[in-house]
Amino acid sequence: MTTIGFIGLGNMGGPMAANLLKAGHQVRGYDLSEDALLELKQAGGVPASSIATVVSGADVVVSMLPAGTHVRKVYMGDDGILANVSKGTLLIDSSTIDVQSARDVAAAASDAGMHMVDAPVSGGVGGATAGTLTFMVGGADEAFAAAKPYLDIMGKAIIHAGGAGNGQAAKICNNMMLGIQMISVCEAFALAEKLGLDHQKLYDISSTASGQCWSLTSYCPVPGPVEASPANRDYQPGFAAAMMLKDLNLSQDASKAVGAQTPLGKQATALYNAFCDEGNEGVDFSGIINKLR
Ligand code: NAD
Q: What are the tens digits of pLDDT across the range 70-83?
């Protein structure tokens, strides 16, 4: 049995911590939310009142926080993880954050004598609950090997993307593709409607032709063709438009930082920004079809 400190027990972190508990590990948790701590207790974990209590003596620390500013503070702040953890502890940050913050925190962790990986996820709350997340992992070979048994409990596909920050780079690039592709599928259905082409007919043809992609075949933005799609549930998320916008903004910040050309990523970011501004932050990201019609 391993003692795991878990920081950030929200929509994703809560069920991930529950899966570590189910696998027989001891989990101590810390979150700013009392409700999140109560849920951890109900799942069999030990809630704590500070980062220091959670991480001191822990073998592994996992964090699942909103953004880079939170991760920097929780790891590098005066009362943070690096100030309180024992040397040699394995650190796993699964938050989706900017590449530079991931690399800065990993460098500080390495200087303090820790193994660390950035391990953002794909798969949403459903994947976190079922333990079927995809982890995109950045870090040294030794750190990846040490983290893999724990990631295996919370996920089904664990992919080593290279050195520190490369997990975040993979996540940002993947989700930029997703945002662009979802808009392309929505535009095609909106055009088909005006041309008098039936939704199911377009689906049947494009799902076996060169327009095929995940946004069409697994997450079709019109009701009917794909039963599990949020389109069949009035666009309840799923993956909220605000989360898509967060990841697209990260892609554009990264793109600017390294001088990459991502004109469609830029346009997708502008469209999701406008969609969210119109009060649709909590709507599934495939609901952008209603804006494009
Ligand atoms: P969430 O807001 O539900 O959870 C974040 C938790 O962190 C909250 O409970 C909050 O109280 C806690 N927190 C914030 N600052 C803290 C601090 N200083 N100390 C301790 N706890 C703190 O968010 P979520 O949906 O669980 O997402 C977490 C991360 O996972 C994000 O980076 C998100 O982009 C990423 N992600 C989310 C999804 C999804 O579908 N929700 C999918 C993939 C990736």
A: 999 999 999 999 99
Task: Inform me whether the pLDDT recorded for 126 exceeds 90.
Answer: no
Cβ(92)–Cβ(62) below 8 Å? yes
Residue 171 annotated to the active site:
yes
137: CA distance to ligand 1 center in Å? Answer: 18
Q: Which homologous superfamily does the CATH classification assign to the domain defined by 3-163?
A: NAD(P)-binding Rossmann-like Domain (3.40.50.720)
- Tens of pLDDT, residue by residue over 238-292, are 899 999 999 999 999 999 999 999 999 999 999 999 999 999 999 999 999 999 9
Q: Tell me the residue type at 194.
A: K
Tell me the domain boundaries of the chain.
3-163, 169-292
CB 31 within 8 A of CB 121: no
CA 211 to CA 270: how far, in whole Å?
23
CATH superfamily of 169-292: N-(1-d-carboxylethyl)-l-norvaline Dehydrogenase; domain 2 (1.10.1040.10)
Ligand 1 pocket (Cβ < 6 Å) reads 7-13, 30-33, 36, 64-66, 70, 73-74, 95-96, 121, 124-125, 239, 243, 246
Residue that the structure tokens 């969609």 belong to: 275
